[in-house]
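#onboarding

Welcome to the new folks! Below is a worked example of what a typical request in this channel looks like: someone posts a single protein sequence, and someone else replies with the predicted structure as tokens. Don't worry about understanding the tokens yet, we'll cover that in week two.

Example request:
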Amino acid sequence: MLSQTKPTPEIIAKYNAGKALLKANPSILDGKIGELSAAAQGPAKKFRDLLLVEDADLEKFMSGGNAIKAGCTASVRNELEGFKFDFAEVLGLWDTS
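Example response:
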């Protein structure tokens, strides 16, 4: 996902578009978050909320995401690893074609 590649203008544009989409419809990820275990829902909501922070550029999002994951158990980190694909797909950050 975004954290595993060097930000290019295309990645930054997708990030900004995904952020705008989430800002316009903050509940867009609720269904995917609801599919997670109770233990993973809190960190997943933190990822969502991190994207809603006004001044959270891509670099701040990536470092904040790493901090969120660092505070999780291994099983929750594994679950979030799968969630990131759903997160990215819903927000158009991931090219699924």
